[in-house]
């Protein structure tokens, strides 16, 4: 807070509370008023302006503390400004802050926002999705939400830009939203630069879920992934689906914390060489437990999949609709051999053929962790590929595989060992009696 020169019986005060700055004009009827009176007037106007109580500790001029009994008329403010040390700022209700800020910024109060803020005060959940926020209209809301009582904040499907997101990133206290565990920013206009601002400025130590999907994050987003995981030790679910992600680094070291579910599906902007770089980056995030890499393009980089065995907590891997090719299939076989915890693998619609089945079967022969395998929608597998997989399972007495989906895999007959199985959309597969006769040694069969 700064006081500048006294003019025409008015004192001009430039005041900054939290991260918002305004100018006040305080009328002085005569020069007999003391500094303590000026402080009181400033505190009263600040309360109306910011929706909270401001406590000023003292005023300083040229490095010297002004005594509260000093007369305003005796203070020479023609040179340096008088500064005020703010001791405390106690916010009131979110609704009051929102109304006061709207009045100050000449913005119409939105009745729907008011209703949602009132509900947020009661429940701790602020559902502000699809309200058409832009930077100007979001500012009053951002100031109100700084109360720090929220558990869940949903700002998805608005028009938030990097500038909008930065409103939450200048922290007046060490923990701006100390109780926030879930933040939804789905479907906005945020770039990697905006995400950088968010990570550097927003202090949310309790954050567990962050959804940034369907934002044009672009170049630099995955490099910030490491910072995100490092900063939020409790984060266990991070979604960056369809974010035009691209990669320009290979490795990043990441700390430890809660196990993480990471969704990077639909980022088709990742170049063919970038897929390999992506996997090299991911192996440095040991917290990953569930990983979604579905709907990415074909790449020689899929040959790096085997290195995901270094993720000691990885239990679920989704590669659906990603054309992993022969090299990727070989790498999947390596992953199955080495993985210590992988329980669920989704390879649906990956254009797998007989050669790919041979590679996968090679891994299944030694795997002792997988319980579910989805091969749906790979018509080139045919009965020959399914037989190879069946033979591998039959040869592995330690296999835990209970569920396998072979729907739409071009199988018109079954000649092997299969667990609980989905064989829909394959044409005739013979009678149940014939299937039971063929499946000698089968562990789990429910047809």
TrEMBL record:
Q: Record keywords: Nucleus included?
A: yes
Q: Any idea where this protein resides? A: Nucleus
Which Pfam families is this protein grouped with?
A: LRR_6
Does the record bear Phosphoprotein in its keywords?
A: no
What this protein is called in its record is: Uncharacterized protein
What are the annotated GO cellular component locations? nuclear replication fork
Recorded source organism is Jimgerdemannia flammicorona
SUPFAM superfamilies membership = RNI-like (SSF52047)
InterPro entries hit by this protein: Leu-rich_rpt, LRR_dom_sf, MMS22L-TONSL_complex_comp
What main location does UniProt list?
nucleus
For this chain's UniProt record, which GO biological process terms are given? double-strand break repair via homologous recombination; replication fork processing
Q: Which terms are listed as keywords in the entry?
A: Nucleus, Repeat
